[in-house]
Design brief:
single chain, 2 helices, 14-stranded mixed sheet, 43% strand, mainly beta, Immunoglobulin-like
Length: 222
């Protein structure tokens, strides 16, 4: 399973609708695999990715229910809320094959770490870098009382290429360039809202854990 990331001619508006330009020119990735340990709640989740010389741009569109957003600070456990996640391994075939887990709840709170599988280690990304990630969201930052009705929400954010380079080395002499291939997966989860669920773009087998880079799929810069 492959996904092609198109170059944006201008930085996309993170607050724009999912199907407006330039997001309309991006391929759509859909979460279609649901872990057997989850519930019958399987929200429709679509994502789009664009890039330019400065950043990656992610846009998630979620048709959900049972929505919560109780975590607000950096590096809080946002996976317990209604959350979308982007795990990316920028340089899988090099001596620095670590991956990032960008986890953002529906209220725009973020958890981000850089993990090196071979070393079984993970380090939180510093607040200085988190300050450089711009996040747009359509729901309030905090939702204490569960929204128990069909609810559509969106989260979009920009990831500085410099952040990726800082941990993995430069992706390419010209930043992300055509024909560059990375590895990634996208997820939708919620641990606390009953019923809990875990959805994936690329199916993850065995124990329910999103931290399995061996199941990532290829993403190509075009």
């Amino acid at each position: 399973m492959h996904y092609h990331i198109h170059r944006a001619l201008v930085p996309p508006d993170l607050s724009a609708d999912f199907d407006t330009a330039p997001w309309a020119d991006a391929e759509t990735l859909e979460i279609t695999h649901w872990h057997e340990r989850g519930s019958d709640h399987k929200p429709r989740v679509r994502a789009k990715v664009l890039y330019d010389d400065d950043a990656l741009y992610l846009h998630f569109h979620v048709e959900d229910r049972y929505v919560l957003a109780r975590r607000q600070g950096y590096q809080d456990h946002v996976c317990r809320d209604s959350c979308v996640e982007f795990f990316v391994q920028p340089r899988p075939d090099t001596t620095r094959p670590g991956y990032f887990n960008f986890e953002v709840n529906c209220g725009g709170a973020i958890l981000l770490a850089y993990a090196v599988p071979a070393q079984a280690s993970s380090q939180p990304v510093s607040d200085d870098w988190l300050d450089r990630i711009t996040i747009a969201h359509t729901l309030p930052a905090r939702i204490d009382k569960e929204i128990d009705q069909p609810t559509t929400w969106r989260v979009a954010y920009s990831i500085p290429i410099a952040l990726l380079d800082h941990y993995t080395g430069r992706l390419d002499d010209r930043s992300p360039a055509p024909d560059l291939t990375c590895r990634a997966n996208c997820y939708k989860g919620a641990d606390e809202p009953p019923p809990p669920h875990g959805g994936m773009w690329r199916n993850v087998e065995g124990k329910l854990s999103f931290h399995k880079p061996e199941y990532f799929g290829d993403i190509h810069f075009t």
